[in-house]
Hints:
Elements: E1 6-12, H1 18-31, E2 37-41, H2 49-52, E3 60-64, E4 67-71, E5 77-79, H3 85-93, H4 100-105, E6 114-117, H5 124-132, E7 137-142, H6 145-162, E8 172-176, H7 183-188, E9 191-194, H8 208-211, H9 218-231, E10 235-241, H10 245-249, E11 253-255, E12 262-268
Parallel strand pairs: 1-2, 1-3, 6-7, 6-9, 7-8, 9-10
Antiparallel strand pairs: 3-4, 4-5, 10-12, 11-12
Amino acid sequence: xxTAKIKLRITTCVKPNRLIxxxxxxxxxxxxTYSDVNYEVIERKxxxxxxxxxxxxxxxxxxxxxxxxxxTSVENKIFYxxxxxxxxxxxxxxxxxVPPLIELIQDDSxxxxxxxxxxxxxxxxxxxxxxTMENSIFYAFEDNFxxxxxxxxxxxxxxxxxxxxxxxxxxIHFIYGSVVNHMGILNQADVIYLDPMYEETVVTSNIAxxxxxxxxxxxxxxxxxxxxxxxxxxxxxLRAHFKSSLIRDYQFTMNxxxxxxxxxxxxYL
Length: 269
């Protein structure tokens, strides 16, 4: 049986400068390394996003002055943005508040040299961890190619161009696929974080664009957790909706927060 290849178009803003053309070259060089992706570089000319989708529904990545955006349709786009990360980080560095995720990671009983984010999504929690854990190396896994590729290059552009030197991006390794298929990495880390955010859909502006391109499968979450529980030794940190069956079934100790539907919890293995 032949698996259908993923399709992607790549283009720039209407008036690209040298920096945009440099990123175009880098992105094209990178996409060539994905054996299951068919890509096409298209000349933008003066075409609008609507024009780009009139005769072709293939998702298109656009390299703009303000960042890298991947349109899965005229109405739906995926791109990295800090969302509440900036606010959380500012509160952290001023000493006003330690985010619950960071509180769970800053654990003297575990080694934080290598941290796995098993469900990258929009990467907001990943970036918060990278900002606060300045000596850690991160492996960020994402099963959906479009989310993986858009966020990977969105983060690169954001922190190399728009917020230059705020984070050393070389500390973050974005990996397309599941940590289930990378046991070597799983065995190196003592901390793994996962956020199966689609089990109980919480409609927010931050993840709405992802909900449109991902079909959630609770069995995939269970396969991931079963593999982690079988092969991983360390601290598992879970972010989950308060109704999530994963909390009960895998016996996570949750840090319940008032005024929010999602909570962070942990389990030592």
